[in-house]
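Mods, move this if it's the wrong board.
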Amino acid sequence: MELENNFEGKVVWLTGASSGIGKELSIQLSSYGAKLILSSRNEQLLNELKLTLQNTAEHIVLPLDLADASSFPEKFKHVTEKYGQIDFLIQNGGISQRGTASESSEEVVRKIMEVNFFGNVLLTKTVLPALRKSKGQIVVISSIAGKFGFFLRSSYSASKHALHGYYESLALEEESNGVSVTMVCPGKINTPISTNALAADGNKHGSMDHNQETGMPVSICVSQLLKAVAKQKREVLIGNKEIKAVTLKRLLPRLFWRVIRKQSPT
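Not the wrong board. Structure tokens:
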């Protein structure tokens, strides 16, 4: 598949662009000729990333805090004044968790839901009119934890489950308007997601989990992701053998629960 045909000249707004899957998406999409709006909270990292991308002048850095929905209309106006259209909204921004349900503070629970669900959804609502005009596509980076709960991920898993319900509904409603939705569920991918995850007390977990260190290389993950986006798949699971757990849960749930409780949370 010639991905250049799908992304060349297209305007892509990408959240969580400064690291992990978002950073690799920026690299690969720029190589296919896309025009990128690079968003995250870390403006310095975004500026450093932009300088490494192909066709640097075609991209802009637009700092964005998903917990501050009041800023979205102004950011949206800036994008549309610059490019005149938005073809893809890739919702990659978010925050993970490494704390038990019983010990995680209310602040942690609310912050995860605010960023991963409410911020995500409200940005989509802001951008939706432009996507209707372009017959565009929304790409939501969920997680395998959006398909089943797991140790130390209660609020994170809940936020991802919520995204599936919301975007499955949105996809049905917007199909007649030409807007498509692709849900992406990565498994164990070699990114710093665990380092930046919130511990039960709200501090950063601060270490790289074995599951991430030994996970699928992020470049392979993103390559598979973009192929699924180009095919406008409704949902795609990306990872190694861990993604088989989704099928196991559906077909043999009792066996699934015996297997999953033996897995390491980190």
